[in-house]
# Entry
Amino acid sequence: MMKMPEIIMRLPDWMTAILNTRPGLLTSVNDRMRFVIDLARLNIDHKTGGPFAAAIFDEAGSLIAPGVNLVLSANCSVFHAEIVALMLAQKILGRYDISDGGKINYELVTAVAPCAMCFGAIHWSGIDRLTCGARDEDARAIGFDEGSKLSDWVAALNDRGIRVARDVLRDEAIAVLKEYVAKGGILYNAGHRKNNSK
Amino acid sequence: MMKMPEIIMRLPDWMTAILNTRPGLLTSVNDRMRFVIDLARLNIDHKTGGPFAAAIFDEAGSLIAPGVNLVLSANCSVFHAEIVALMLAQKILGRYDISDGGKINYELVTAVAPCAMCFGAIHWSGIDRLTCGARDEDARAIGFDEGSKLSDWVAALNDRGIRVARDVLRDEAIAVLKEYVAKGGILYNAGHRKNNSK
# Structure
């Protein structure tokens, strides 16, 4: 008899304290990005994953769901920070399209521009706004791979009604990437060509 | 106090019977594809999701993990068939890179060519072989969207050491897509532009 396991995804325990002391509305984009960059740094400090974090906010700047990279701790290559945040937001809101058919606006804030997988996931999530800190090339500069992405991925999202802002606190986001490497963080990789996913 | 839920992913109950009566090795690619197309049809019949299925096989043709589209039933836009199969295979094998650093070969068989998200996920999964039934345009022909993909996505995977075979039992895979529409299946969509994800 062949039985398939359940997959359980949960945030690291250290996130509880963050959520209990979180600020109220983060009305400025810099504040939202700083919150996310702090999560990325805490994910390194607690050794729960790569130097990547993301979060979904509603239009007022209220946190709906955070996400951190859980690839190593969950042994799951799908659990990038953006995917984790999107899955949680959909669970919390009770719908796979968080926009509810385009009626409600949500923003995905990510410390580093999305990889090829997360770029694709954004299509189906219902967010209408993507805000990025570090760029693809910043992740590549420390040895992570972003995958084969359209060179004009920003335009492709724009064409689908998703606005994209880049370089928000880029230097602070880069600093976390460098900190990961300086602390000997694993550039985990997958596959026959030793690609490093973020 | 803000508390984040757990996300639990499990296959539909009807899959148990399939797994208990599954054949041994599926040494021919047509047999592996037929198994996957049958799963896609059963996913329609049981109303557990879209007309999409996938599975991971080892090099001998032994089933490691099946997947079906669970977007509607799980309220999660990430749970495409390919993602479900990859997550299960990684859980079962106990590693996020199922190739274990390129030492072991695994094939992802999917009834329909991967969307933009699943294309990206393939990079990080550790599979070295992708086998597709229906093409992107076949999914689009019934109203599903594949997302913004590189036009040369097959070459992009080849460049990373991942072989791609297409059009395996394409007509049978298309027949399942048409059956879904004929039975009034939901072309679920996400976002402000009403994109339909597969």
Observations:
- DSSP finds eight helices and eight strands in chain A.
